[in-house]
């Protein structure tokens, strides 16, 4: 199975990179399964499905994996809820409610932090009070900065750690953590070792693959190769369109350990 990160990998500023449609059409005709993966929790999986469809990508709803569904899986598996405080957008709150969670303040048993582009002082104050009260803290994903320069969920986690020193993040759902892998395995009946992760970030996409024994392709898409640190992608493709031929996933070399 091929798993694609979205921002910076398939598109930038809402515009697909050249060759992406052709690549997906080739995958659709092959026997390889594929999925789209995002840590962005501002909108739900249905909205992402519509967004990707509107870009012209061949997909169905089940091909989309977001940190929203991973958050639900994480909290349900850990037995958290149904009363939680969701620090996130109205769409994220709606999604969690559709999964059986009840967003509330007084009765909240845990705080779930997402990428909240609708953050205001009231929400921040409520969430801060819950953290000061010692409620367990969870997050949809760990990214401090979202594509470009937007403060994301990880930045809020740092804020809460500053609000109450010693605060521990009890669980994070999105990549590079385990819940989103389990979500994919459950839905597609694949094992993590059969997944090839395609992405543009070392610390999320490539670390995610390394953490769970997946193979990985780093795509640069015109950006200078980032510092790899201790991470070794199986392949580094200068551009996503090269997956069509030179880096066609079935031709990937086996991992050399
Ligand atoms: Mg990316």
What does this structure look like?
This protein is an alpha/beta fold and 257 residues long. It has two domains: 2-66 and 175-251, 3-Layer(aba) Sandwich (Rossmann fold); 68-172, HAD superfamily/HAD-like (Rossmann fold, 3-Layer(aba) Sandwich). 33% of the residues lie in helices and 19% in strands. The chain has eight helices and 15 strands. It has helices spanning 20-29, 45-54, 67-77, 90-98, 121-132, 153-163, 178-188, 202-211, and strands spanning 2-5, 11-12, 15-16, 34-38, 64-66, 83-87, 102-103, 111-113, 137-139, 145-146, 150-151, 169-172, 196-199, 215-219, 235-237. It has a six-stranded parallel beta sheet with strand order 5-4-1-13-14-15. A five-stranded parallel beta sheet has the order 7-6-8-9-12, with helices on both faces. Strand 6, helix 4 and strand 7 form a beta-alpha-beta unit. The chain is globular. The protein starts with a strand and ends in a 20-residue tail after the last strand. 40% of the residues are buried. The mean pLDDT is 94. It binds magnesium ion. Magnesium ion binds next to loops.
């Amino acid at each position: 199975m091929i798993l694609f990160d979205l921002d910076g990998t398939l598109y930038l500023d809402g515009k697909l990179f050249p060759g992406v449609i052709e690549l997906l059409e080739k995958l659709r005709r092959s026997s390889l399964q594929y999925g789209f993966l995002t840590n962005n929790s501002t909108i739900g999986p249905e909205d992402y499905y519509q967004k990707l469809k509107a870009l012209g990508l061949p997909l169905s709803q089940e091909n989309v994996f977001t940190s929203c569904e991973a958050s639900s899986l994480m909290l349900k598996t850990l037995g958290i809820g149904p009363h939680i405080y969701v620090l996130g957008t109205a769409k994220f709150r709606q999604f969690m409610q559709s999964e059986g969670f009840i967003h509330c303040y007084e009765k909240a048993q845990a705080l779930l932090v997402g990428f909240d582009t609708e953050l205001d002082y009231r929400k921040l104050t409520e969430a801060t009070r819950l953290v000061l009260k010692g409620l367990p803290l969870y997050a949809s994903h760990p990214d401090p900065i979202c594509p470009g320069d937007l403060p994301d969920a990880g930045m809020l986690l740092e804020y809460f750690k500053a609000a109450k020193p010693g605060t521990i993040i009890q669980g994070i759902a999105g990549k590079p953590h385990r819940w989103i892998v389990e979500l994919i395995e459950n839905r597609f009946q694949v094992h993590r070792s059969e997944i090839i992760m395609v992405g543009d970030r070392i610390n999320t996409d490539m670390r995610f693959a390394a953490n769970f024994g997946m193979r990985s392709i780093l795509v640069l898409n015109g950006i200078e190769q980032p510092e790899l640190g201790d991470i070794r992608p199986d392949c580094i493709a200068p551009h996503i369109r090269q997956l069509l031929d030179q880096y066609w996933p079935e031709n990937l070399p086996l991992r050399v350990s």
